[in-house]
């Protein structure tokens, strides 16, 4: 008998028929002798509907009230799932975040979990009940409802698993695991049976959106064994098969029996490049350029400063494509006159492609192999950024699929066992 | 400056445009210097949608989970209304019942309010905020969400007004007050400017559905000055006009300047008559007949036992029309063999018409005037039931409109000032 946390996304909870399927799957785990806590998302579309109503009323909504409104989506889900479980003959009880309670700070719409009280949940589990807890939300010190931001239900599930010291946290979603790259781009992409927590962080933040990045951080911090698996399989499939399906995110190196050098190729098209040309190369330039950008709440990703030539340098960085216009505006109005740059150039037609792998640490030549592969395909590299376990390049948008396919092949990802 | 509670029904909250109108109206009251607490219902259709989802999952839902689900409708409403008020430049904060808290017993789906803590609300009012509180719900001793049953938002509003010792509780709805009878049946029906609490109780329970009956009981118990008025008027109409519009429910006899003998004619078509024929007239007969009916959770209204003839009597009562089949089944299977009755007869084609008036107490001849009026129209009276302030008759369904019109005229309701 193990204590296991299940998390189901909005698509899995999208209709009463699908909720019934979730209940059937949970019931199967209960009958196999496990204690189960379920964290469901709001029914798909519901959070958008609720926030849409708020938007009709004001363009500048009070975040506390937004959380009051948005949190109801998950509350409906837990009640419905508890009913579906009871209809399956499984004793179940639902709790909103504030009832557990899941305590958070007061950063409405993007709160962070500070603690979870497990007393009530544990008592229900010991009484033989399945406990269904709202994802995405908690309560702050003022007694107000908070939400964790989009995708926060993943984080809730991992946090609940950490608080309960659950054996495993199963994140059921509409994909069957984490792949070496997007199968829509590379048909030979292979599901990874195991991925390290660090690799998962890079894969998630680089655009292979399977899990919310904060949930992975949480899993890492509290060493929660987390598995991503499909909710679209037969809910009554044999438990032995289900327990080894999907992709396990692990913290123990030796769980990766055969460590590949590169685990996957991540990519993101939501990129734009900004270049500040002819900047007088003085101390504080980077700060003077990026300070106003940060103040405007624009997230910056890759940053490159070229070597100085005759006292002038070029400074480039990438932002989300939707923020390019805003970034250019800030640079032209606030930065250019201040630092005396020659020109500001924006390019929305770029993308980022990254090779990720914990094995990189102990292997040399990964970067050169990556650059050679791109050279052989005639792809010009515009920016390069590296970390311990990944290498990212910014290239022209139109080469993205070509680059991903070539790198996936070059690193032998279609054949390597994970 | 007065503390006033506003309550808005589901139709008034039915769209963001209507919510904006509610905010405009509340803002007008605030600008006139009043402290306002608002209790809105769920957006129209929302509670039905939510309970419909639950029904798709199980025919026998756990009432605790139903309350978890249904209570979200009002939570969305308070958040949206707070946003709309803020957009109008009025500081506002929303609370769910559990945050106030509104404490109730644990009778899920039909809970009763036991106490309301006014600390938090009063602090916000004193800080210049409008406080928006969910109707329809509270929290029990276990920390679970409870709901008060259909129409419970009226009760919430009156209870909040009582707890805060508010000057008045304004119930905004889609009618502009309480009428002498239904204007759809009698075009000459007149709005009552004032009605006594006792009359309102009789009018509400007899089918003139303007206010939930429990809210009227609450208003009576705590002597909350309650006014029913329209939310369909111009939200910016002069405050002086609005303050004397609608129908005031009063507890002070002298507020009714000119007391009419009869205040209104109420009626209900949702009636069915059951007759147990040839019952041996022994002690305990009424109990033996009505005990099993009560056990089957069937509400009984008018009860008549005829005089005994040769040791046998007939026993009649009315039930809601939808429960006739169930009542007949109980009588045939459990009661008939037990008491040795000759026959059980059901008649779904009856209705109830009542004359209601606190003036009746001090006037004689009301009953005979009522019977004479019906006799003149050739309407046969099947059952009669009287109380201090009303006389009800059960008659054939087809005569209902005729009876209501004739009585409305006979008691001079189209001309009397209330």
TrEMBL record, chains A, B:
Q: Which Gene3D superfamilies match?
A: Acetylglutamate kinase-like, VC0802-like
Any one GO molecular function term: ATP binding
What Pfam families does this protein's entry cite? AA_kinase, ACT, ACT_9
State if 4Fe-4S is listed as a keyword: no
Q: Which domain of life is it from?
A: Bacteria
SUPFAM superfamilies, sorted: ACT-like, Carbamate kinase-like
Q: In which pathway does it act?
A: Amino-acid biosynthesis; L-lysine biosynthesis via DAP pathway; (S)-tetrahydrodipicolinate from L-aspartate: step 1/4; Amino-acid biosynthesis; L-threonine biosynthesis; L-threonine from L-aspartate: step 1/5; Amino-acid biosynthesis; L-methionine biosynthesis via de novo pathway; L-homoserine from L-aspartate: step 1/3
How is this protein annotated for GO cellular component? Answer: cytosol
In terms of InterPro entries, this protein maps to: AceGlu_kinase-like_sf, ACT-like_dom_sf, ACT_Aspartokinase, ACT_dom, AKii-LysC-BS, Asp/Glu/Uridylate_kinase, Asp_kin_monofn, Asp_kinase
Q: What EC numbers are recorded for this enzyme?
A: 2.7.2.4
Q: CDD domains from the entry?
A: AAK_AKii-LysC-BS, ACT_AK-LysC-DapG-like_2, ACT_AKii-LysC-BS-like_1
Any keyword Nucleotide-binding? yes
Binding positions for substrate per the UniProt entry: 47, 74
Record key words, sorted: Amino-acid biosynthesis, ATP-binding, Kinase, Lysine biosynthesis, Nucleotide-binding, Transferase
**Which reactions are catalysed by this chain?**
L-aspartate + ATP = 4-phospho-L-aspartate + ADP
Q: What class of enzyme is it?
A: transferase
Gene Ontology terms: biological process: homoserine biosynthetic process; lysine biosynthetic process via diaminopimelate; threonine biosynthetic process
Coiled-coil ranges (or none):
none
Q: Where is the ACT domain?
A: 274-349, 355-418
Where does this protein hold ATP? Answer: 7-10, 173-174, 179, 184, 209-210
Family membership, please give it: Belongs to the aspartokinase family.
Annotated protein name in UniProt? Aspartokinase
Query: What lineage does UniProt assign to this protein's organism?
Result: Bacteria, Pseudomonadati, Pseudomonadota, Betaproteobacteria, Burkholderiales
